[in-house]
Amino acid sequence: MKKAVVLLVAFLLISSNAYAADKQKEEERLHNAGVVMGEILNVPDDIPQSLLDKAKCVVVLPSVLKAAFVVGGSYGRGAMVCRKGQDYRGAWGAPSMVALEGGSVGFQIGGEATDFVLLIMNDHGANSLLESKVKLGADASAAAGPVGRAAEADTDAYMRAEILTYSRARGIFAGISLEGSTLRPDNDANEALYGKKISARDIVLRSETGTPEAARTLVSLLDKASPNKHS
User: Fold this and answer.
1) Terminal Cα-to-Cα distance of the chain (whole angstroms)
2) Of 12, 174, 206, 219, which one has the fewest beta carbons inside 10 Å?
3) 48 contacts 36 by C-beta, under 8 angstroms
4) How many CB atoms lie under 10 A from the CB of residue 44?
5) From CA 81, how far away is CA 120, in angstroms rounded?
6) Torsion angle of C-alpha atoms 173, 177, 179, 184, degrees rounded to 10
7) pLDDT band at 155 (very low <50, low <70, confident <90, very high)
């Protein structure tokens, strides 16, 4: 009996330490996503203001390494932040963790660590990403986004795209094609971050979901850069 109690205590301690480590890892991703977003918003030729104002959600995937997807596995993890309220028109809310997988972008970005930023431009794109895996270019139309705060962003290609995609590598920020890649909710990461099983939809759309402290920088940057959604 005593041995069983000792084993149970040891198991609980190991489980608790593992949970703490997983939570810290997701908090670091959120912190890094905030750093990336802040740096991108401060470069001269960043995301056009008109597109950021129209975006329903923003996905930030920091420090994606080529070595992570050369072998064909999952290669990018980060956070999706959406506007709260009906039709995604309110202030920016709590983040849902996401994973980017597959595709064939390795030859485009070289061996450097690369940051990705994706703009989700309509309700269908946002709702799809909150429910299941979405293949870019098939389940949701995608295009490499234009850069420059005053860039022409109302062409047919950009107006039709549900998701606009960007990358930053070696200090260069530019639109990039991610067609063929898939983006999905990272449910395990959300559980580690929020301490319970919770769906991406509940995180984004339920007002009682609080914003983790590690996401404050990311959310406040978006609130400052684009406080109100424009139609």
Assistant:
1) 66
2) 12
3) no
4) 8
5) 10
6) 10
7) low
Residues 6+ apart with CB under 8 A from 35: 62, 217
196 inside domain = yes
Host H or E run for residue 58 = strand 57-64
Residue with the two structure tokens 């999905």? 184
Q: Which two tokens stand for residue 190?
A: 């959300």
> Six-digit token pair at 74?
């999952």
What's the Rg (C-alpha) of the chain? 18
**CA nearest to 164, candidates 92, 205, 226, 116:** 116
pLDDT, one tens digit per residue, over 134-143 is 999 899 999 9
- Give the count of beta carbons closer than 10 Å to the beta carbon of residue 209: 17
CA distances from 122 to 4, 89, 149, 166 (A): 55, 11, 20, 17
Q: Does residue 99 belong to any structural domain of this protein?
A: yes
Q: What total of structural domains would you count in the chain?
A: 1
pTM for the whole thing? 0.84
Q: Which residue from 141, 183, 142, 147 is spatially nearest to 168, judged by alpha carbons? A: 147
- 67 in any annotated domain: yes
Q: Which residues are CB-neighbours of 90 under 8 A, at least 6 positions away?
A: 83, 84, 229
Q: Are 136 and 180 in contact (CB under 8 A)?
A: yes
SS3 108: helix
Instruction: Look up residue 180 and give its two tokens.
Output: 């063929």
DSSP-derived 3-state class of residue 3: helix
**Residue 5 lies inside a defined structural domain of this protein:** no
Domain that holds residue 199: 19-225
